[in-house]
Automatic annotation (TrEMBL):
This is Thymidylate kinase. Gene3D superfamilies: P-loop containing nucleotide triphosphate hydrolases (3.40.50.300). ATP binds at residues 9-16. PROSITE patterns: THYMIDYLATE_KINASE (PS01331). Phosphorylation of dTMP to form dTDP in both de novo and salvage pathways of dTTP synthesis. The keyword Cell wall biogenesis/degradation does not apply. NCBIfam families: DTMP_kinase (TIGR00041). Belongs to the thymidylate kinase family. HAMAP family: Thymidylate_kinase (MF_00165). The lineage of its organism: Bacteria, Pseudomonadati, Thermodesulfobacteriota, Desulfuromonadia, Geobacterales. It is an enzyme of class 2 (transferase). GO terms for molecular function: kinase activity. It holds the Pfam family Thymidylate_kin. PANTHER family: THYMIDYLATE KINASE, UMP-CMP KINASE 2, MITOCHONDRIAL. It comes from Geotalea uraniireducens.
Length: 213
């Protein structure tokens, strides 16, 4: 089997940048790597992503949001993640089930047991081998995220960035609570540092866990 690494954190924590750098480094070392993201990762899930992250869909109710994430994830796991792991590849995923618990459970205050059940339905027994949580203060993360969005002319995907600071504080608290509950899987890193400083600690965390043949 392969090795499944997920990158988690609030908006603007730097996880996407770090994931790309990790992928490049691992490929240079000769590892077979698959880079993917949630929501999305395959055509059907990408179509659902367009609905979920479009700020024009502000009327979406939390339960609809939750069910759409579960649907996208089920397709993504079946079509991309599970086959890649079965082929012995390293899968690097930008967000996974922990984001649903943090955003829809802690952020939206939906029932967390229901979310766990939906996650289980979508992924079966699949679980990340390692989850890197890039933590940073909400104001720093949102500031970065809004700067990034301001540079885009289209596909801004800003529905969550428009939520209140209190919402994002609850999401951050949710991620940290998940990390406390599963210390054997999570590594919490300081995402407020520079890209280069963060890359160093991310690389060290992965090197300490990644199986070597």
């Amino acid at each position: 089997m392969g090795f499944f690494i997920t990158f988690e954190g609030i908006e603007g924590c730097g996880k996407t940048t770090q994931l790309r750098r990790v992928a490049t480094a691992l490929e240079k070392q000769g590892f077979p790597v698959v880079v993917t993201r949630e929501p999305g990762g395959c055509p059907i899930a990408d179509a659902i992503r367009g609905i979920l992250l479009d700020a024009a869909n502000g009327a979406m109710v939390p339960t609809t949001e939750l069910l759409l994430y579960a649907a996208a994830r089920a397709q993504h796991v079946a079509e991309v993640i599970a086959p890649a792991l079965a082929a012995g590849k390293i899968v690097l995923c930008d967000r996974f089930t922990d984001s649903t618990i943090a955003y829809q459970g802690y952020g939206r205050n939906l029932d967390r047991q229901m979310i766990q059940q939906l996650n289980a339905l979508a992924v079966d027994t699949l679980k990340p081998n390692l989850t890197l949580l890039l933590d940073c203060p909400v104001k720093i993360g949102l500031g970065r995220a809004m700067q990034r969005i301001a540079m885009l002319e289209q596909n801004k995907e800003e529905r969550f960035e428009q939520e209140s600071l209190l919402f994002h504080e609850r999401v951050r608290d949710g991620f940290l609570a998940l990390a406390v509950a599963e210390p054997e899987r999570f590594v919490v890193l300081d995402g407020s540092r520079t890209v280069e400083e963060t890359e160093t600690v991310v690389t060290e965390a992965i090197a300490a866990r990644l199986p070597r043949s």
